[in-house]
Sequence to fold (117 residues):
Amino acid sequence: MKIPNEIPWLSFFQVEPQLLDGDVPYYYNQVKYKFTNGNHEKFIVTMVPSYSELKLEVFNSDTNELLGLLDLKNIETIEILADRKEEKRIMITCPYGVMKVDFVPRCKIFINQLSVD
Fold:
């Protein structure tokens, strides 16, 4: 899986990751980012780069109601498309499609399925 290293993620999520094992390098670790946006949405993003996995959970921060869940395997790439105060967006490429996820100003997920020949 091709992803940015931990420094761009610090800027993007604006929080330190929680590491499953503090003695294991970032790429081989399970990293978890927890943060909220200004629209009462709480995110938990869990990545295991060496296994090409990403899990995105979105909750209402007032009620803790689960609003959305992506649990992806076999990710090829994750790219940061926008990292500004007013817009945060990533693109996830998998063998079966491309997803764009907006975190700020509010959560939006766009999925484009790739054609299979």
Remarks:
- The mean pLDDT is 93.
- The chain has one helix and nine strands.
- Residues 23 and 29 are 9 Å apart (CA to CA).
